[in-house]
Design brief:
alpha/beta; Rossmann fold; four-stranded antiparallel beta sheet; 9 helices
């Protein structure tokens, strides 16, 4: 489904501050699965997402999505088939626009439109139904500006918008990290419901090992730009994951995963 082959990425090349994040990095993501991505800060998680989504260009390597090499596509072109939800609940929405306007923007992603024809009244009922699935009452607040919503409401809306047109790949970039534990749990349940109902292939960066264990089909741990652990969910316990994370004793698990 997603194949990343021989990926290399460096920053500040040729200077004393040069950082080699990836060097001949390879990874394969299976269709329809949710893959949890773990790793300490600086291991390359967000850089990987930025390269996949087109925010950053790779120095070398190929990114192949459903058999199509997307290396030369710009970020806005990749947005046609890649959805992303960020840690900041405000990044995936337009706070100064209403809920209805935000949903309409998502529906018209990568299409040409003007503000005058942004909202198609024929679609409002279907938008209400989609919002109703969030169980937050947002379907009754279509004309409310998003800046007046809570962080949890905004992140729920952002999640719905990212999956509205059923992307081929969904990137969840620590999307519950800025929320309180109760709201985080609700968002994770909605996330699982959406990706399972629509069979959306998903990669999820998280520092919450409990969430990765509970909601992922596969767990990958990165360290210094390399895959140091790759196991199916159920092959490892939460305690073992925590111990590995703390001690970086990856070798035996890599042997078992091969």
């Amino acid at each position: 489904m997603l194949n990343i082959n021989n990926l290399s990425k460096s920053f500040n090349t040729g200077t004393e501050n040069e950082i080699n994040v990836f060097e001949k990095f390879n990874i394969h993501i299976n269709k329809g699965e949710c893959t949890g991505i773990l790793g300490a800060n600086g291991c390359g998680k967000s850089t990987l997402f930025n390269i996949i989504s087109g925010v950053l260009a790779a120095d070398n390597g190929d990114i192949v999505l459903n058999g199509k090499n997307i290396n030369n596509l710009r970020e806005n072109e990749r947005a046609q088939f890649i959805g992303r939800v960020y840690q900041d609940p405000s990044r995936g929405v337009s706070p100064s626009l209403t809920i209805l306007e935000n949903i309409s923007l998502s529906d018209k992603k990568c299409q040409k439109y003007t503000l005058k024809n942004l909202i198609n009244k024929k679609n409002i009922d279907s938008y209400r139904e989609s919002l109703k699935s969030l169980d937050l009452g947002l379907e009754d607040k279509l004309n409310t500006e998003v800046k007046y919503l809570s962080g949890g409401q905004r992140q729920s809306l952002s999640l719905l918008m990212a999956t509205f047109n059923k992307p081929e790949l969904l990137l969840l970039d620590e999307h519950t990290a800025a929320l309180d534990p109760k709201t985080s749990r609700l968002i994770m349940e909605k996330t699982q419901e959406l990706i399972k109902n629509h069979s959306i292939t998903t990669m999820m960066i998280s520092h919450n090992i409990k969430d990765v264990i509970k909601y992922s089909d596969r767990i990958i741990m990165l360290d210094k730009g390399k895959v140091m652990l790759d196991v199916k969910n159920g092959e490892i316990t939460e305690k073992e994951l925590i111990d590995i994370f703390n001690t970086k004793n990856y070798d035996s698990y890599m042997d078992e995963a091969v």
